[in-house]
Amino acid sequence: MTFERQWLEKIDIGDVWGIGRQWSRKLQRQGVATAADLAHLNPHHLKQQFNVVLMRTAMELAGIPCNELEVREPKKSIMSSKSFGEMQTDFALIANAVSSHCARAYEKLRREGLSAQYVTVFVQTNRFRADLPQYCKGMQFKLINASDDLMVITKIAKRCLKQLFKPGYSYKKVGVCLEGLIPKTFKQSDLFNQLSDEVVQKKDKLFKAFDSINTRFGRETIRLASEGASKPWAMRAELKSPAYTTRWTDLPFVRNLT
Questions:
Q1: Which of 26, 68, 167, 251 sits in a 20 to 30 Å window from 209, CA-based?
Q2: H or E stretch including 187?
Q3: Looking at residue 121, which CATH number applies to its domain?
Q4: When comparing pLDDT for 74 and 35, which is higher?
Q5: GO BP, one example (predicted)?
Q6: Residue 257, domain member (yes or no)
């Protein structure tokens, strides 16, 4: 008898994970008293009499892996995009929206510990409004050095928007996509980079504080001025469900009536 078999013989069938009282009694009536007995049953019969979960449990006890660990694939791109609540023609408001999307993409970038080598911006009109002029275009900019600097990303994105924007169109959607993602720790040095190590360290501390404050007190507690003071371009959210577990302002008030 193997070492594993000896241990399984000591485990009562009712103590096996996922087996309740009803199944335990049914299995015992079939002569299955221990985990070792379960491991030797025909998996297909278990699937027919019980379910696929118990079949997999028996197979795992028999040493046959059923749930392999999933290897997390590295992200290839990070996108932030959303339609406007109303079509927009004002460049300044659209630029604010692009800045906001940069901030959302930046959050995901920092959370993953990545840097981006490309910044892509796109704009489009409402394709469902055949009565209006249509326009859809994107632009990609390659950074000299991969970056996770919000100010750098936003500056590049707004520069792209300036070239993409055409007056006379009613825009329905804009978006920002960060691509060419690499681990932040892997950065290629640049002979022409004028930033000293001291400046780089100071900026890193600045954004760590930026991230920490927004994580603790809620998204957009602090943000770049380029996002604007308000968001008249944003989608309406009158019917949005309250975020009771993540936003203090959404917590219900309880009054003492005594």
A1: 251
A2: none
A3: 3.30.1490.100
A4: 35
A5: DNA repair
A6: no
pLDDT in tens, 81-138: 989 989 999 999 999 999 999 999 999 998 899 999 999 999 999 999 999 999 999 9
Buried b / exposed e across 135-162, counting CB within 10 Å, b at 16+? eeeebeeebeebbbbbebbbebbbebbe
Q: What is the pLDDT of residue 248?
A: 62
Length of the chain: 258
pLDDT of residue 236: 57
Burial 66-94 (b: 16+ CB within 10 A, else e): eeeeeeeeeeeebebbebbeebbeeeebb
Q: Residue 240 domain-assigned?
A: no
190 in a structural domain? no
- Cα 17 from Cα 180, distance rounded (Å): 44
Identify whether the C-beta of residue 152 lies closer than 8 Å to the C-beta of residue 172.
no
- Are 83 and 175 within 8 A, CB to CB? no
DSSP H helical ranges for 124-196: 150-164
pTM of the model: 0.61
Residue 98 domain boundaries: 77-184+209-220
**β strands within the chain, DSSP E:** 77-88, 114-125, 136-147, 171-179, 182-183
Exposed, middle or buried by CB within 10 Å (0-12, 13-18, 19+), for 63?
Answer: exposed
pLDDT score recorded for residue 3? 66
- Supply angle C-alpha 206, 249, 214, rounded to 5: 10
At residue 109, the pLDDT reads 92
pLDDT at 75: 78
Mean pLDDT (the chain) is 83
